[in-house]
Amino acid sequence: MNITQPFGSTLELIGNTPLVLLKGASAAAGCEIYGKCEFANPGSSVKDRAALYMIRDAEVRGELKSGGTVIEGTAGNTGIGIALVANALGYKTIIVMPDNQSKEKMDTLRALGAELMLVPPTKYADPNHFQHVSRRMAEEIDGAIWAGQFDNTANRKAHIEGTAPELWEQLGGKIDGFTCAAGTGGTIAGVGMGLKAFDENVRIALTDPHGAALYNYFAHGELKAEGSSVAEGIGQGRITANLEGAPIDDQFRISDEEGMQWVEQLLREEGLCLGLSSGINVAGAIELGKRLVGEGRKEARVATILCDTGFRYLSTLYNADWLAEKGLPIFGWLKAD
Hints:
6-stranded mixed sheet, amino-acid biosynthesis, P-phosphate_BS
C-alpha cells in the first residue's frame, strides 16, 4: 500500500480526486463509463477547483489584498468552495444565492462563516438576478472583489490545468469521450480544451438538462430553452466567457426523471450518494458511450463528473414529499409503508 506524503496546506487537498468505474452505467452503455469523484474535494464539490483558481488569480492581479472580502452570486457549491478557500487565506466571504436552492447549502454556508444573502430566483436580464446583485455589492464594499464565476476564465483554467490532466493520467492516455452539464461552462469547456490538447480526437459532449438553452445552441445555433429542471447549479441560457470557444462535438438533453433513475441506481447498487446534476451527467455519459459503440468503438472509455454529494440534498432529492410535489420518482426505500 502506497502512502502519500503529507500535504503542506489544506488547499492542496483540492483536486487530484479519484476516478471510479461505474459498473451499472458501463453495462447500460456497452463500454466503460468512469466518474470523477469531485465530492472528494474539501467542500464536497467540483466547484472547489474554480474557487481556488479565481481567488489565487485575484491575488496575482493585485485586486484581492489582506483582509479583503470575496463576494459571489452562486447556486451554492461555488460559494461553499469560496468560503473554505477564503477562510484558509484570511478573507471574508459574502454569498448571494437564489432562495429556491437546497436548505443544506444555505446551512452549510452559514456554518462556514459566510454572510449569506438570499434573493428570489429571476431571469438573468432582471437587475435583481443573483449575479447582478452580488456584482453591485462588490462595487460598493471597500476591499471586496467579485468572483464572477460565469465570465471569469480562471474558472475554466482550473480544469484545463487540473481536471483534464488528471483524467488523462488516470486513464493512461486512453480516453475516447468526456461529457458533463454546463452551469458556468467552466468545467465542460476547460476539460474539453485540456483533453483536446492531449488528443484532438477525444469526443467532447454537452449534457444539458431541460430548461437550459445550450442543447439547441450547439445542435441548431439558437439559444432556445425548452421544458424545466429542478437540478441545481446546471443549465445555462447564454454563452458565458467560460463557454466561448468550448470544443463541443456532440450534445444530449437529459430529463430530470432519467437523471433521478441514475441517482437511485448508483446509490442502490454502487453505494454512491450523489446529486441530480451527477445523475444527469451519468445519463449523458451513457448516451455518448452508446454513440461511440455504434460507431464501432466497442472498447470506448467515457468519463464524466460526479459533481457533489447527495448529502447536500437531503431535504429535496431524498425527501419523499418534495419528490412527490415535483412529480419525480420516489426511491423505493423512501416510500411510506
